[in-house]
Amino acid sequence: GIQVEQSPPDLILQEGANSTLRCNFSDSVNNLQWFHQNPWGQLINLFYIPSGTKQNGRLSATTVATERYSLLYISSSQTTDSGVYFCAGAYYGNNRLAFGKGNQVVVIP
Amino acid sequence: DTEVTQTPKHLVMGMTNKKSLKCEQHMGHRAMYWYKQKAKKPPELMFVYSYEKLSINESVPSRFSPECPNSSLLNLHLHALQPEDSALYLCASSQGNGELFFGEGSRLTVL
Prior knowledge:
The complex is a heterodimer. By secondary structure, chain A is mostly beta strands. Chain A is built from no helices and 11 strands. In chain A, strands 2, 4, 5, 9, 10 and 11 form a 6-stranded mixed beta sheet that branches. A 5-stranded antiparallel beta sheet of chain A has the order 1-3-8-7-6, with no helix packed on it. The radius of gyration of chain A is 13 Å and the shape is globular. By secondary structure, chain B is mainly beta. Chains A and B meet through β4, β5 and β9 of A and β4, β5, β9 and β10 of B.
């Protein structure tokens, strides 16, 4: 199956700082998502981004499908950005979404 | 607010109990999923229902029994669980392109 590698595994940020999270895939995917899991366990859908660039407020994501990686940018980080960020991917039509191990992000005031 | 609703949010059960987790979505999605997540790990797929039929069972022990009564509802029946089954159980649904939407989860503790 597809292997997903996320980096860095852990990140501590000062409030207001910017950061970039990276996700590498072992094979091509055409379903790619970024999630944020808050401290209460809820997995929030951030982006569905099999290719291209999308922005949502202070967050943006870019996927370079031909090179099998995706980036998540957090700008002007806030304490509410703390949590675990997961990327996940699959072939189109395959319901087995492969998850990375996550990026643990802590934003300190 | 999530459009996938899970109940209960928390459940404590003994190893001889029978309980059920419930999930509901009203987004018209035709695929529904159960995932299990242990602390500091990514979610692990358990079951997938597509058009109300079980399409994937990831070799889950029979003490977990899924049920899909209709296209909006998904249940997970629990019986004779072990303490190591304590985890966060996540329900999700997806549309045609496979984009997953998760519920808030049910945190299960088995004593």
